[in-house]
Amino acid sequence: MKIAFSTLGCPDWIFPEIVSAAADLKYDGIEIRGIGNNVFSPDSPVFSKDNIEASASRVASKGLEISCIDTTCIVCDEKLWNIELIKKSCETAKALNCKYIRVLGDIAPAPGNVDDENVIAALKEICAVAAGYGVTVIIETNGVYSYSERLLKVISAVGAENLGVLWDIQHPYRVAGEEISHTASALAKYVKHVHIKDSVVENGKTVYKMTGYGDLPIKEAVSALKEIGFEGALSLEWLKRWNRDLEDPGIVFAHYIRAIKAMI
User: Fold this and answer.
1) Model confidence pLDDT, tens digit, residues 94-104
2) Residue 103, beta-bridge partner list
3) Nearest to 191, CA basis, from 157, 168, 217
4) Average per-residue pLDDT in the chain?
5) How far apart are CA 93 and CA 249, in angstroms?
6) Which CATH class is domain 2-263?
């Protein structure tokens, strides 16, 4: 397994700082979810046509990979995604030698009112476009798709070889009440990328903690991933961009790689 972090955790870092930190801390990869003020990563100047080759070279020269490009597309609502955003994400992924782009099927971690047929139609169109770039689309276990069986029905209906799953270990466990072993077994064939976070629930609200300081069964998830032969990235999703009160990335990223290596 590889170890990565999402740029959600370092919203104030410029791209060279992100790459240098990943290399210095001995990470394998970086998940791109916003650079600076550009939440939609392909709009970042470092990924412009003039700069993306140099950015890809910077990553490769440090022995790193771009593990995933997270789009801003939420495919349950036609107003929250469009094919041009998908094309731009795929172009960026291809230029950065990145295998995966992530989409969401539901708007929030809590399940919403989602029409599976709309999601299936959207994913068919998205996967067809992504295939032209050699890119795999991964849909996150989020919202109504925290429930493994519902997500599997959608994947089966889409029937695209380049469609997989981003397993965020928190959502099926907290939202759907699934045991880690159940989610891992159900989604084993499709898991391409994993979000690791830790948290506790206090007064009905999720409070995020550094790895090992919450009560999410992360070690169990790592063991389950070993059993299914997962070889992708365990990516720390530290939600600093959305919650500036969380600990700073310099502290959290250094702690995470020590903690997750011990679990592996």
Assistant:
1) 999 999 999 99
2) 139
3) 168
4) 97
5) 24
6) alpha beta
